[in-house]
Amino acid sequence: MLHDKLRKLVLTTLIVASSLGQLSLAQTTKVSSTGINYIDPTIGNVAPLLNTNRPIVHLPNQMVRVFPHRQDHLDMQITDFPMLCQNIITPQMIFAIKPSVGNVADTAWYSRLTYDHDLEVTQPWYYSVKLTDDDILTEYTAGAKTGIYRFTFPAGVKKNLLLSHYYANGKYELQDGNKLIGTEFVVDAIHDQKGMAYLYGVFTGKPQTGKKDGEKDWGKYTVSGVPEKPKKMAGERAFASYGESDSPIVEFRYAVSFVSPEQAKKNFDKELTGVTFDQLKAKGKAAWEKTIGQIKVEGGTEAQKRSFYTALYRCYVRMIDFSENGKYFSGADKQVHDATRPFYNDDYTWGNYLALHPLRSILDPKREADMLQSYVTMYQQSGWMPEYPRPFGDRPGMFGFKSSVMFLDAYRKGIRNFDVKTAFEGMLKNAEQATMLPFRNGPKGDLEEFYYKKGYYPALHPGEAETDAFASQKSGQKRSSVAITLGDAYDSWALSELGKELGNQDVYKKYAPRAQNYKNVWQEKTGFFMPKDAKGDWINIDPKFDGGHNGFDYYNENNGWSYMWNVQQDFKGLRELMGGADKMEQKLDQLFREGLDRSKPVFWEKWPNQTGMIGQFAMGNQVTFFIPYIFNYTNSPWKTQKYTRLLLDTWFQDNIFGVPGDEDGGSMSSFVVFSAMGFYPITPGIPRYSITSPLFTKVSIDLPNGKKFTLLAPKSSRRNKYIQSATMNGKPLTSLSFSHDELMNGGTLVLDMGEKTDKKWAMQN
Question: What residues does the Glycosyl hydrolase family domain cover (predicted)?
């Protein structure tokens, strides 16, 4: 009897411990139905191979975004704390602060800070961590252009706040005993961008302040935070010291600006005058409560809600409002401008056209219009429509001009509060005059002229030397010939369709045929999109593995199995190329079953971006997001329901490994938000949504027009994941799709769920 009681006690203890472990991941004291209480910014903080998610503290779509400076969740020391993170994927930060105790010593600047994850709290509006070596509680909360660090030291010690820079030549100026003006000379050598950022900060109390020259002292970490051989510290350093009898709680309150030091002071006065740390924290929480509360879900598991609402939170990290009290700095022309409406920056069109911009078109079309107008403004300032706008200019990014798809998609969804005429002008200039090569910006060259004439981008044979001078300029990046051909077909379709919408028949007639260029690289014999040389001869490669690192010769970041489906503008045409709906379905089946044919280390040395694999389907990269929905274009739409559920359950769990690849600041998270709700914008530019199996029994979206869209699936469960019938506003659906207008008019979609998979639906076209 005693043995049985002991066994039950041990079992109960293990169950409770397991439950507490899960709750600690969510970092909430009480799980409730309120969406923000399900958000866990640590989800996905350990990457499968490449870039990791970050536990970002910020307001939705605002400029100040902060996370602790460390490699990832498993880096057991923190280097320092930034005032602003320019890039929320890799740690490109400006202005650093860290606490120390005792006398101000040079070693304190480069000593890393030990902490304990169990003494760390991460919320969208608040961060805190106990630094264990010196027993210092570090807290942070953010405003739009401001932030406050609060440090609680042990009683009776000398307390220091140490400031440094992440880039050389940074300067600090101390004023009035407790005020600080900073200048950071940002040099992003990777992307060839330069610019300046400014800081205005105030220390609490009356500290002893001073400066040190960073160039004469040696640190033990690089800008990335990886311990390496000693490096010189960047720029000037400053400090504020407090005596043993001073209050153990000290704050550094600050504002940043990309306009001027004077503007940083204005930002400070506007946001922080008379505002306490706890008030700013409460204001941030209220902002997130309002934003996240726009979507409410019922049913599903607690883990699914944590993954869902965390994904929704990540959809607000890009783009960011760069406006500063009627002014803004634009990296497009490196000038400061007066602002008559919000100006937004920081975006990756190649990843975010897929679902992030379409999601915003539902939740906040007014802000989406401001963002699109910002693109137009940057085109007017630089002469090129940007694709990867960053604070100091358009980063050379992936291939293609997906801004064109974004403009068409918004226009067809009734978002018109942007200069569509000038946007169309910029789209046309990119299509006719810009290089298509990946990771390059600038005018077209001979390869583009070849493409215009022949309808495909020419490839080189394995081992053949590059003959184009412009293509050979970028080390490690090649022609990506098949990917470029497929990408331009979609971009050209978007241009032609917007031309038709605007009554420009000349552009429509010119570019509509170019939208069919994908057919020029379809090789019927192999059933893949394959490279051709300049003579028009096929280059026989293994589409699963050939093409150099990341497949840059022919594809890009993904292999031929992924690019087989990159015809978003014409799935009907792709279906015909493949030999009909049944053949397309067989190809899709094989995609999810096809093996690596080599060891995992060998495969991922070649394809580090192609992660989150099920067969040859890679959930970890943007190229593939829409592929599971293509089953809706076959006779077996139930397979879309099967695979979207499998992908969400497998790759998006509520833990530190819960993201399968490079999330890119909202692109992958928006896939999760849509798919968990049960529908997805499979072809941006066509204002319809493809239906899949929702995770929840009820989803309701409070629309900005005052209406509410509701999806009801009362029988939905892990087993009942297949759609037996569907109605929109009481009318039976014959195919699994509905329009954007039906959603925005406050429609009600009802799905009857069950285990059977034999329901016949009309194919989408």
Answer: 263-755
For the stretch 67-111, pLDDT in tens is 999 999 999 999 999 999 988 877 789 999 999 999 998 889 889
Amino acid at 171: K
CB 691 within 8 A of CB 678: yes
Considering only CA atoms, which of 421, 420, 397 is closest in space to residue 409? 420
Phi and psi at residue 7, to the nearest 5°: -60, -45
| DSSP code for 631 | G
Give the whole-angstrom CA distance, residue 741 versus residue 689: 10
SS3 514: helix
In the block, which residue shows the tokens 């009481």? 730
Output the six-digit token pair for 421: 């005429």
% residues pLDDT > 70 (the chain): 92
Q: Does domain 342-754 have CATH number 3.30.2080.10?
A: yes
Q: Which two tokens stand for residue 519?
A: 């057919």
Q: State the Cα–Cα distance between residues 484 and 491, nearest whole angstrom.
A: 10
Tokens of 222: 């690089």
Cis, peptide link before residue 93, omega less than 30° from 0: no
Distances from the Cα of 413 to the Cα of 369, 435, 704, angstroms: 11, 29, 14
Q: At what angle do helices 420-433 and 403-412 cross, to 10 degrees?
A: 150
CA dist., res. 296 & res. 546, Å (int)? 46
Q: 691: closest CA among 731, 646, 638?
A: 638
Three-state DSSP at 221 gives: strand
- Judged on CB neighbours under 10 Å (0-12, 13-18, 19+), 156 is exposed
> Can you tell me whether residue 212 is helix, strand or coil?
strand
Q: Is the pTM of this model over 0.85?
A: yes
Cα 663 from chain centroid (whole Å): 5
Instruction: Decide: residue 476, CB within 10 A, 0-12 exposed, 13-18 middle, 19+ buried.
Output: exposed
d(CA 716, CA 515): 39
**Calpha distance 763→715 (Å, rounded):** 24
Query: What are 117's two structure tokens?
Result: 């994850």
Token couple for 684: 């941006």
Pairing of strands 218-221, 113-123: unpaired
Reported as a single tens digit per residue, the pLDDT across 460-518 is 999 999 989 888 876 677 999 999 999 999 999 999 999 999 999 999 999 999 999 99
| 335-338/344-345 β-pairing | unpaired
Q: Is 569 exposed, middle or buried (0-12, 13-18, 19+ CB in 10 A)?
A: buried
Measured CA distances, 267 to 63, 200, 257, 275, 283 (Å): 12, 9, 8, 13, 16
What residue spans in the chain does CATH classification 2.70.98.10 cover?
Answer: 39-293
Tell me the C-alpha to C-alpha distance, in Å, between residue 759 and each of 147, 632, 751: 55, 12, 13
| Rounded (5°) CA angle 59-60-65 | 50
**Residue 435 has which token pair?**
């290089």
- Look at residue 348 and tell me whether its pLDDT is greater than 60: yes
DSSP, residue by residue, 22-63: HHHHHT-SS--S-GGGG--TTTT-S-SSSPPP---B--TTBS
* Banded model confidence at residue 230, pLDDT cuts 50, 70, 90: very low
Structure tokens at 437: 């090569």
Positions of CATH 3.30.2080.10 in the chain: 342-754
Dihedral angle computed from the Cα positions of residues 473, 477, 481 and 482, in that order, rounded to the nearest 10 degrees: -170
DSSP codes, 260-308: -HHHHHHHHHHHHTT--HHHHHHHHHHHHHHHHTTEEEESS-HHHHHHH
Torsion sign over Cα 310, 697, 667, 259: negative
CATH topology classification for 39-293: Beta-galactosidase; Chain A, domain 5 (2.70.98)
Q: How far apart are CA 712 and CA 35, in angstroms?
A: 18
Count of alpha carbons within 13 angstroms of residue 77, beta-carbon side? 13
